[in-house]
Amino acid sequence: MATKKFLFKSALMLVVTLSLIFVSSNENYAQKRDIQIIAHRGFWNVNGNWNGNTATPQNSLASLKAADSIGVYGSEFDVNMTSDGGLVICHGPKIVSLADVQKETFETVRNEKLPNGESVPSLDEYLSTLKKLNVKPVLEVKRHYLDKDGNLPDFDKIAKAIKKHGINRKTLTIISFSLEVCKAAVKKFPKTMVQYLGGEKSPEELYELGIMGLDYHYSVIDKNPDWVERAHNLGMVVNVWTVDKTEDIERMVKMGVDQITTNYPVRATQIVEENK
Ligand code: MG
Predict the structure, then answer these.
(1) What DSSP string describes 136-165?
(2) Measured in angstroms, how far is the CA atom of residue 17 from the centroid of ligand 1?
(3) How far is the CA of 117 from the centre of ligand 1 (A)?
(4) pTM, whole model, 2 decimals?
(5) Topology, domain 34-274
(6) Could you state, in order of their start, the residue ranges of all structural domains in the chain?
(7) 91-139 per-position pLDDT tens digit
(8) Could you tell me the distance, in angstroms and rounded to a whole number, from the CA of residue 1 to the centre of ligand 1?
(9) What is the H or E stretch that residue 88 is in?
């Protein structure tokens, strides 16, 4: 009799526990349903014209302010390093008249004028501007190499700048194609969302490394649709790049990603609203 009572109690406990897990995981999932839009290299594509818009060049302060003005969640930008260790905002390797930003000095790069008359922004200048805006920074570490002592001099400098400017670690996202940079970012900024761009690691493999976000080309998610749920089950965030076509944005929304990085942030915002 006592054994029967014990079994009944145990079964009841199990049912209650499983229900609680189910309810809380559903709540987590529901909390994640607001998809966040990230303007790729700022909102530079203001008129939907890939070639003609010179008022808001990619990775300029103007495109950062434009991203803020449309109220999107985040603005992505590329941090590159010059030959003498200066930090500048540009995708590279080419910038205006220079063939390779990483082979030029900081002064030479800063003297280059973007089509709207701005100098190529320094990281310092960019972070000071960001601090005054609501849009959240999504910082891509472009140049990365390990020195002979196994350090990442470029990332160490970026980390110092983030600290110096008092950037909010909880609203910052650091992204990189380098696993080494992502691992260093997790160590240096434990409260910051770090997302790996490479695309070949499963959510579980990234989770093992403490990397809580995947920021993959949308074709990777098309090939591995279950990665969204598997990432969510681990409390991870799924971001996709660079999703521009209406049908691709709609499909990613339906597949349940958390963030969409796009050159068409207004279009993406409308699609997300329509699919709510
Ligand atoms: Mg980038």
Answers:
(1) EEEEEE------TTS--HHHHHHHHHHHHT
(2) 43
(3) 22
(4) 0.87
(5) TIM Barrel (3.20.20)
(6) 1-32, 34-274
(7) 989 999 999 999 999 999 999 999 999 999 999 999 999 999 999 999 9
(8) 67
(9) strand 87-89
